[in-house]
């Protein structure tokens, strides 16, 4: 249960052959952004994360990444986390200048999580990365539903900024936006893909681009629906940059916004049974047993009160012979939706 980097060795019990590899165990992110009401809105510009050339991708010095922040001078990063498939050490700066841009084509040593901008002096930053074959870059936001209702939808908008280009035959780098309810971490569980972005700009040979320029950034708006995030459950948003090419592209996200939440009242369920559904007039009345998933009252009505009458506390009285339908109802309120009525048919024989 300890985080860190561990060496795992596999040995052949019938010989002397062994194979070893380092495995990084990351802590489960504990930070989250709280959604307190249906009027919740959110924005994240990533401005303030490190921009200094001290951490440039041509060097080996990494800025420390803290899940939930602060990162650099950006203290508004509650709920954010980031990692790689392997070898995560933090993040470096990718700037559109000769001292801190990518080699053409890039080197594997330049891959990883990056703070991206037009120059080391620019505070307008994007968060992204340069992936490598079998080493994807993951960035995510954890949102906790504290509305007291079901979170069923919202609108998420973000820019994708392209900081390098290559020929169309090698341009297979993608940025995928996905969601999961109650994920344990960025790389676990079943994620639902909501958008797969393919960079539109290609070049005759590998080249650096200024992704902060309007020419190389694209606005993406995704309307999420049917999320069914229960009260105090988490909605995770994840952006993944991946490639299988020998010339991967650097992609980042910027100006993330969330608005137009769709919340619905919590469901109520009634459980209604009778001690008997058929009897002869003169016998004792059936006993109704009623429970529900909320504390809201359940009312019982009879379609024929001349057969069975309903008294206080849903106590039943036999009045005469015939058939009646008893219906249990539970009204909704500002938090709970009305329950689906439950019926029982009772026959009183002569």
Order of helices and strands: EEEEEEEEEEEEEEEEEEEEEEEEE
Poorly predicted residue ranges: none
Q: What proportion strand?
A: 35-45%
The tally of helices reads 0
Structural class: mainly beta
| Average pLDDT | 93
Q: What's the N-to-C terminus distance?
A: 71 Å
Radius of gyration: 30 Å
Q: Count the E strands.
A: 25
Which shape, going by the Cα principal axes?
Answer: elongated
State the helical fraction.
under 10%
Describe this structure in words.
There is one protein chain. This protein is mostly beta strands and 350 residues long. It is 0% helix and 44% strand. The protein has strands at residues 4-11, 18-25, 33-35, 42-44, 80-84, 91-95, 112-117, 126-130, 137-145, 150-162, 164-165, 174-181, 192-197, 207-208, 217-224, 234-242, 251-264, 270-274, 278-280, 288-292, 299-302, 308-310, 316-318, 322-329, 342-349. The protein is elongated. The model has no long low-confidence stretch (mean pLDDT 93).
